[in-house]
Specification:
heterodimer, A: alpha+beta, Cytochrome Bc1 Complex, Chain A, domain 1, 2 domains, 7-stranded mixed sheet, 17 helices, 12 strands, about 20% strand, globular, B: Cytochrome Bc1 Complex, Chain A, domain 1, 6-stranded mixed sheet, 16 helices, about 40% helix
């Protein structure tokens, strides 16, 4: 029999030494310190200390979302998100939630096109408990036929409820389909009903073993942490989790099919008001043009005094609701508008007004004052993103997953603030062109 | 022996994580470390010569400032004939000044990277402005325009009336809103806090004259307090505020003291019919002590045990054990002259009567039997663990300070919060439950009458109201 005492000493030494060797590099930037390193099993680790309050946030992101799903197998990533709360080897069903709630913490999870994230904010003395919980479901998630069927049933019910609540769901899916053209970019994140019914235990096993492994994940801990102790705990709980096979590349066409202008209509007799979606493809996220487009988003749609809100909602009063802006998925981005109006006449007037505002951007120079206003709103929103420990974790993970350097993110804000009135004219002309997608939503 | 039939089984066994050995530390959750000390930033305060109080919390984390202006007058002092006037007046403040139109005010707020909002509470009103720190002067300039030279343009009065009207109309059939409104209406029947909720038909009665009257009477520096969170010192803040607001004139202010409402003599069951509602909502409430009372801390521990989270007794009983409810919680709200305690639950329409009885039983149980130590400690852990989570954002922190200043709470609600919670034990909670929760409650049921009539008839008498809170008729067993 192995001597237990010997095992404890060896484990401790190993953890302590490896923690020392992999302590990572810290770069101090003007806003907050960030440390990044990788464990031997490929798990990416991002830490950021802030001792202002005894609070920490722990976020684990798996680089898997609906973009990794194939036709007829949609909904797997969302199903896995749900399954991650159904218990693992040492944590019972839903116990993860009760552990966090009992200590006054908050938690949630989210699946989008590119990632599935699990996050919790707790008092900083509870860090080991959260790491224990997250490591347990990363290492030994319990997947069984009964659990998969239970989760499928709950998701099917959720789809039913979503359909009755969101009357614009079909039109929004059609809009995405026309704009993105690649299936992996536009199928519903929650999954197609028929696909979910047909998901088998084997599908779930395969999907899980492919994507839910440390080499496809990033853990970010922000807040009141002691860096050395945190590194020690991360290694203790995560380093012995075996790496998975290399993660397959997503199955997308290398280039998007060129967009031709299209107008389609969709009728929903349950709706009481008509509306439309209007969209354009723009340059990839964080490309040079993207920063100018972000400032345009603020000029047009953000803040009470933004151009479209002032004109459509306040002066002409032709809209009930106007929303929109940039949406980015992986290396693609679009700029869209969504409007609902009380009748067809006001709906059509709103459409014309948006096009006329886009034309103004193409030919008239934006005043210095208005540009400063848009940039300042953008700056506040940017800063607010890292004003809490959880916000900071979101911010760092988003930065990391877009292959940006988490330690030099501060430069990013300057790229938005350097946008000039001339570049706005150029970018508006380049992207708000005739290649647009319009989906009219009719009431009957 | 043929092995082929067993291959799938062997594969399953091989891949089954439960059969592999694991490190010992994975088996049980680690022991938590002791609670870290909570060192809250210091609140520095000063009063200007015109009576305006200023509190500054210096934080350097992000380059923004959260400013909150408290006016120590809320909905409770709206005239009896014009409930909602305090709310309406507060919504008019950014609608135009002598030099700036509403649209120019909006532009200025956007220009400083700002966000503006206003909320009227029963005892006070808070104006919040969040902006980039380099625009501190612009923010104060804007604030002085709004406070010293508001014009309340007629067109904007009509616009605000329209927004308020549609907002209330859209909430009419919201069961949560209708239920809580009726609970307040009956609980505060003869008390000024009934004005917290008002009907849409009153909105047309607000006029420029009564807005000005309310504004002139209550919006003065000696009835206000400015709270600032950001990278600034008290001396800089005071100097700048003084230069922008020194002409804001001090005046005599009437002070109001309201007695708590009298408890009900017997339980009252009320019902609101909302056709088409699939489930039923239950509200069961009574009045409580104010937040300034030393019993506050034991009350919040008590609430945590009873119904603060999905781990609490009400949720565990009504949902997890009996399967009656989708959710069941208890809430406590605290005002200057009293508080309110209520249970809220969304239940299956066929078990309304049993759900009401179970809820009342939980109250009786917690008021008659001492809570086991473990349950109390768990509730305390929750409250202590959660406290710092809720003050991470500058605006959250500013709101907490605003509440402390507005309700005149002592430092026990700020930097002695942990100690005050730690001090609570089973005996103290038991006393609080006995003193506070045993008054006959008002029970409001919201549902579709056609679906739940059998359940309603299980109660001796039910008073029926419409969704605006108007009494219609009485339903008794004999009918």
């Amino acid at each position: 029999m192995i001597n237990k005492k010997y095992l404890v000493i060896v484990t401790f030494l190993h953890l302590a030494l490896s923690g020392f060797l992999f302590a990572g590099q810290e770069i101090k930037n003007s806003s907050f310190p960030v440390t990044y390193f990788q464990l031997e099993n490929g798990l990416n680790v991002i830490l950021s200390e802030d001792h202002s309050l005894p609070v920490i946030s722990v976020m684990v992101a798996y680089k898997v979302g609906s973009i990794n799903e194939q036709p007829s197998k949609t909904g797997l990533s969302y199903l896995l998100e749900n399954l991650m709360f159904q218990g693992s080897r040492n944590v019972g069903r839903m116990q993860h939630i009760s552990f966090i709630q009992r200590i006054g913490g908050t938690l949630s999870a989210r699946t989008d096109r590119e990632k599935t994230i699990f996050f919790q904010t707790v008092s900083s003395n509870q860090m080991a408990t959260v790491l224990w919980l997250e490591a347990d479901r990363m290492k030994s998630l319990s997947i069984s036929y009964t659990k998969v069927e239970q989760v499928k049933k709950a998701i099917l019910e959720e789809i039913k409820q979503k359909k009755s609540r969101n009357l614009f769901q079909n039109s929004s899916l059609l809009f995405d389909k026309l704009l993105f053209s690649d299936y992996i970019y536009y199928h519903p994140i929650i999954g197609e009903e028929s696909d979910i019914r047909n998901i088998t235990l084997k599908d779930v096993f395969n999907f899980h073993s492919t994507y839910y492994c440390p080499n496809n994940a990033v853990i970010c801990i922000t807040g009141n942490i002691d860096k050395q102790k945190t590194i020690y705990l991360i290694r203790k709980y995560f380093q012995s989790i075996p790496a998975g096979k290399p993660v397959p590349a997503i199955n997308q066409s290398s280039q998007m099919i060129d967009l031709t202008s299209k107008t389609e209509s969709i009728t929903n007799p349950l709706l009481s008001t008509p509306g439309f979606f209007l969209g354009y493809r723009i340059s990839p996220p964080y490309s040079k043009d993207y920063y100018t487009m972000s400032v345009i988003e603020y000029l047009l749609l953000k803040g009470e005094s933004s151009r479209l809100y002032q004109r459509l909602a306040k002066k002409e009063r032709t809209v009930q609701k106007i929303e929109g802006g940039i949406r980015k998925i992986k290396n693609r981005a679009i700029f869209s508008f969504f409007v609902t109006s009380t009748n067809n006449y006001t709906r059509n007037r709103s459409k014309k007004a948006i096009l006329s505002e886009l034309n103004k951007l193409k030919s008239n120079v934006v005043s210095e004052n208005e540009l400063t206003k848009a940039k300042n709103l953008l700056k506040t929103a940017y800063i607010k993103r890292y004003s809490t420990s959880l916000g900071k974790a979101f911010f760092l993970i988003e930065t990391f997953l877009h292959n940006k350097n988490v330690q030099t993110f501060q430069d990013e804000l300057n790229k938005y603030l350097e946008v000039t009135p001339t570049s706005i004219i150029g970018i508006a002309n380049r992207y708000f062109n005739e290649k647009s997608i319009l989906v009219n939503i009719e009431t009957k | 022996m043929k092995i082929r039939p067993f291959i799938p089984l062997l594969i399953m066994l091989f891949f089954n994580p439960f059969l592999h050995s694991q490190e010992r530390f994975r088996k049980y959750p680690p022991n938590p470390e002791p609670f870290p000390s909570l060192k809250l930033p210091e609140i520095e305060s000063q009063t200007l010569s015109n009576g305006l109080k200023i509190s500054v919390i210096r934080l350097t984390k992000i380059p923004v400032i959260s400013l909150q202006l408290i006016i120590f007058s809320g909905e409770s002092i709206s005239p009896d004939s014009l409930p909602g006037l305090a709310t309406f007046t507060s919504k008019m403040l950014n609608r135009g000044s002598l030099n700036l139109s509403f649209s120019e005010i909006e532009k200025t707020i956007d220009l400083i990277g700002g966000e503006y909002s206003v909320k009227t509470f029963p005892d006070y009103t808070v104006f919040s402005l969040f902006f980039l720190e380099e625009y501190f002067d612009s923010a104060l300039e804007l604030l002085s325009q709004m406070l010293l030279q508001p014009t309340f343009p007629r067109q904007e009065i009509e616009n605000v009336k329209r927004n308020m009207f549609y907002d209330l109309v859209s909430k009419r059939n919201n069961p949560e809103f209708a239920g809580k409104k009726l609970l307040y209406q009956i609980l505060f029947k003869d008390h000024t806090y009934r004005k917290i909720f008002f009907n849409d038909d009153i909105i047309k009665k607000y006029s420029l004259k009564n807005i000005q009257m309310f504004f002139n009477k209550f919006y003065c520096p000696n009835n206000a307090h400015l709270v600032l969170v950001g990278n600034l010192s008290l001396s800089t803040a005071s100097r700048k505020i003084s230069s922008y607001l020194n002409t804001w004139k001090k005046q005599n202010i009437e002070t109001y003291h309201f007695l708590p409402p009298k408890p009900l003599e017997k339980t009252k069951i009320c019902f609101i019919n909302i056709p088409g509602l699939k489930d039923a909502l239950i509200f069961s409430g009574s009045s409580l002590l104010p937040k300034t009372d030393p019993e506050y801390f034991s009350l919040i521990v008590l609430n945590q045990v009873l119904g603060g989270t999905p781990m609490s007794r009400l949720f565990m009983n009504l949902r997890e054990s009996k399967g009656f409810a989708y959710w069941a919680f208890s809430e406590m709200e605290f005002y200057k002259s009293c508080g309110i305690f209520y249970i809220r639950a969304r239940v299956r329409p066929d078990v309304i009567h049993s759900s009401v009885l179970e809820s009342l039983d939980e109250i009786r149980r917690i008021s008659a039997q001492r809570i086991p130590v473990q349950e109390i400690e768990q509730a305390k852990s929750y409250l202590i663990g959660h406290f710092p989570l809720a003050i991470q954002r500058y605006d959250e922190l500013a709101s907490r300070i605003s509440e402390i200043k507005a309700l005149n709470l002592n430092e026990g609600h700020w930097n002695k919060y942990y100690e005050n919670i730690m001090y609570i034990d089973s005996q103290i909670v038991f006393k609080s439950a006995y003193n506070n929760l045993l008054y006959p409650p008002i029970i409001v049921i919201v549902g579709d009458q056609d679906n739940i009539i059998d359940e309603l008839l299980k109660f001796k008498t039910v008073e029926v109201y419409d969704n605006s809170g108007k009494y219609l008729y009485r339903l008794t067993k004999e009918q």
